[in-house]
Amino acid sequence: MSQIIELQSEGLEKHFQISIPASVIKDKTDQKVISLTARANVPGFRKFKSGSHITSKAMQVKQLQIRRQYEASIKNDVQNDVIVAAVESLIKSNNFSLIGDPSIKINDDSSIEVNSEQNSNSEEKDITVDVKFTVYPEIKIPDFSQITLKKHIIQCTEESVNEFINGLRHEVYEYNDCSEQEKAIKGSKLVIDIAITGDGIEDHNKEDIEFILGSGKLISKDIEERFTDSIVGSQLDISTTLPDNYPDSKAAGKLANLRVTVKKIQQPVLITEQQILDKYKVTSIDELKVKVKELQNKEFMGLSQILLRARLLNQLDKMLDYDLPKPLLKSEYNVVRQNVLAALKDNNNNGIKVALDKSSDHDIEQYCQFVATRRVRIGLFVLHYADKKNITVTDEEKNMLLLQYLNKGKEEANAIMYAYNNNLRWLSNSIAMEAKEIKVINHILENEVQIIEEPCTSDEIEGFADEISKDMGLSFTDDAISENINNDVKINTIQVI
């Protein structure tokens, strides 16, 4: 019989030592050799029929030949089988639920000596195996009847509808080429060529670069302003230090000389009222107001649901209390940190960049640790709750979620395609996890907690969102709010089972 000793274990990290008597290995090896002797084709020997006398001279000679040739590999197979069976028995008898595969190490001084000579008096050593693994924590479902959440019902007002329509009237419908002497103003579209030179900068020419004057999309705001009052054919010589986030990493942060040629200037033409009506497929402004009100109410309902989910997640994060597996924390932290650093380098003002752009390295690391810990804690609960409540995800639901990402925008679609081409398993797991998470959160909101509806205006909603986001470790403004709250609990490393 194997002996099992629990060595120094800490929390969810388990460390056992299993001792397997050499006699167990020897007996099983002998049984396998005997079985193989009867079945194997060995030159000079015939197969023995079932029940042939084991002490027959021919059987003994054949058995000795098999031992000489194959005993080492037979013992190795037997040893592996016995170790695997012992580890599986250890896990099953203790009802351990493992994260990943166990680490199994055979101690060097317990390797088996192979001696094929019969009647050998050499003493074989017992096998000792160190087994290490991480288990899932014991998770208890909290008493949701004690939770009351506010659901903000945003009222769409006539003022907000009129403000939206006035914004439509300032949209650019198209751009028309201007005359050669017409000057560029804020809102003009320019097409330029740039030749960049400097120490360590080689062959760095860019042609047909388009930008809107005043958009802040060029190298820097100061450089962009230099184009005000320029005309077609203007040449500008500019000395500047390229920003650290300049797309070409070899030129980023370096002193550079720019020679810029203005090739084309186009002036914006605002959309007409009729074009607005055609765009929204209505026949009058009054009809447009009705449609805008419907669209705004739908948008507000979506934002209200996002905030409700965020409040529930914040409550869960405070209520759930159990040890978290170190491997999952480490893996999730690496993913979060990679995503945060990529977001900070992005030229677009994404939610993470808005919240963390001026933070210190220490604050960024603290945020990554906070988010990783929160995601693992809530993610484990989601899986546990789904298992207890028999909440499953269909292929159709996963496909619907995938289509939502593909239709969300170019960046999301590119990220999905990159994951599909480089790590299909990760993509499948991530989509399945998020789909399950959505069903679990919706189930809790619909069946477990108490919800109080509270009317509010669209102006008030930002304050509520910022209050919620502070519990998530950030403070957001404007469009950063919903982006970060909605992405709060996307677990990247937990396997859906």
Automatic annotation (TrEMBL):
<dbReference type="InterPro" id="IPR036611">
    <property type="entry name" value="Trigger_fac_ribosome-bd_sf"/>
</dbReference>
<dbReference type="Pfam" id="PF05698">
    <property type="entry name" value="Trigger_C"/>
</dbReference>
<keyword id="KW-0697">Rotamase</keyword>
<feature type="domain" description="Trigger factor C-terminal">
    <location>
        <begin position="284"/>
        <end position="446"/>
    </location>
</feature>
<keyword id="KW-0143">Chaperone</keyword>
<dbReference type="GO" id="GO:0015031">
    <property type="term" value="P:protein transport"/>
</dbReference>
<keyword id="KW-0413">Isomerase</keyword>
<dbReference type="InterPro" id="IPR005215">
    <property type="entry name" value="Trig_fac"/>
</dbReference>
<dbReference type="GO" id="GO:0005737">
    <property type="term" value="C:cytoplasm"/>
</dbReference>
<feature type="domain" description="Trigger factor ribosome-binding bacterial">
    <location>
        <begin position="6"/>
        <end position="166"/>
    </location>
</feature>
<protein>
    <recommendedName>
        <fullName>Trigger factor</fullName>
        <ecNumber>5.2.1.8</ecNumber>
    </recommendedName>
</protein>
<dbReference type="InterPro" id="IPR037041">
    <property type="entry name" value="Trigger_fac_C_sf"/>
</dbReference>
<dbReference type="InterPro" id="IPR027304">
    <property type="entry name" value="Trigger_fact/SurA_dom_sf"/>
</dbReference>
<dbReference type="InterPro" id="IPR046357">
    <property type="entry name" value="PPIase_dom_sf"/>
</dbReference>
<dbReference type="InterPro" id="IPR008881">
    <property type="entry name" value="Trigger_fac_ribosome-bd_bac"/>
</dbReference>
<dbReference type="InterPro" id="IPR008880">
    <property type="entry name" value="Trigger_fac_C"/>
</dbReference>
<dbReference type="Pfam" id="PF05697">
    <property type="entry name" value="Trigger_N"/>
</dbReference>
<dbReference type="GO" id="GO:0003755">
    <property type="term" value="F:peptidyl-prolyl cis-trans isomerase activity"/>
</dbReference>
<dbReference type="GO" id="GO:0006457">
    <property type="term" value="P:protein folding"/>
</dbReference>
<comment type="similarity">
    <text>Belongs to the FKBP-type PPIase family. Tig subfamily.</text>
</comment>
